[in-house]
Amino acid sequence: MILKKKYGERAENFSNKAARELLSLIDRKKTNLSLALDVTTKREFLEIADKAGPYICLLKTHIDILVDFDQDLIEQLKELKTKHDFMIFEDRKFADIGNTVKHQYSKGIYKISEWADITNAHPLPGDGIVSGLKEVGLSLGRGLLLLAEMSSKGSLATGTYTEAAIEMARRHKDFVIGFIAGRKLISDDDKDDFIVMSPGVGLDVSMDGLGQQYRTPRNVILESGSDIIIVGRGIYGSGKDIAVEAQRYRDAGWEAYSQRLMN
Ligand code: 5BU
């Protein structure tokens, strides 16, 4: 897998503010690690984010699993973002018609568009989902990822569905900055550039008993040409030292990228 350009150099391929910032941040901080922070209390959430913060480019949230969510959590999250220099990705997986997702993105309790630099959507409903989210997010400098593939066993997002996701992204290049997928989806010579983020990454286990399937940072970045590894329980699983594990995944992800550059 040949990589022609470094992360930072690719920033110029994007008009989207979030994409440009993320690619520059990855280069500046030398980390392609995103932490999937799936804990259910505010205390754990902020504690882990603070410990892993120095090693990540992107904090991935599922804000609706917090049992004690409040506005103060968002204020503290923003402080950690500045303190550690990372961006925020709410893994909301929007999946409805444009008019509905517009409200889900900007309103309700969470007001995702106010604090999440990046969010994602299933291409399933058609282009309207992107248009609806774009109405809210583009002027705020936000970026969207389309779920072109999923890491779970038996995922239906394959073949022509994945191809259609790529075509949808091409039609909305100003707002769609990339994909959730397990591999690079378009060639380096393509006129369009997209950032690929891969969940289902772990160094110690191969599955979780509920359909999740894990591959290593080397598989994902070096062999499959993805750009960002998303790691959750591999970092904060029971008994783990958060900073040690975050550093381990950061190093593995960066090593895989460095090797890809040399190829
Ligand atoms: P884990 O603890 O590393 O298994 O967490 C993986 C995270 O990535 C979790 O937040 C999932 O919701 C998320 N995820 C995923 O695992 N697979 C996918 O295809 C997508 C998201 Br999309």
From TrEMBL:
Active site: D91, K93, D96
Listed GO biological process terms: 'de novo' pyrimidine nucleobase biosynthetic process; 'de novo' UMP biosynthetic process
Residues given in the record as substrate binding sites: D38, K60, S151, Q212, G232, R233
CDD domains: OMP_decarboxylase_like
Keywords annotated in UniProt: Decarboxylase, Lyase, Pyrimidine biosynthesis
Domain Orotidine 5'-phosphate decarboxylase: 32-248
One Pfam family in the UniProt entry: OMPdecase
Domain of life per record: Eukaryota
Name recorded for this polypeptide: Orotidine 5'-phosphate decarboxylase
InterPro entries per UniProt: Aldolase_TIM, OMPdecase, OMPdecase_AS, OMPdeCOase_dom, RibuloseP-bd_barrel
Enzyme Commission designation: 4.1.1.23
Protein family membership: Belongs to the OMP decarboxylase family.
Record GO terms (molecular function): orotate phosphoribosyltransferase activity; orotidine-5'-phosphate decarboxylase activity
Recorded catalytic activity of this chain's protein: orotidine 5'-phosphate + H(+) = UMP + CO2
Pathway(s): Pyrimidine metabolism; UMP biosynthesis via de novo pathway; UMP from orotate: step 2/2
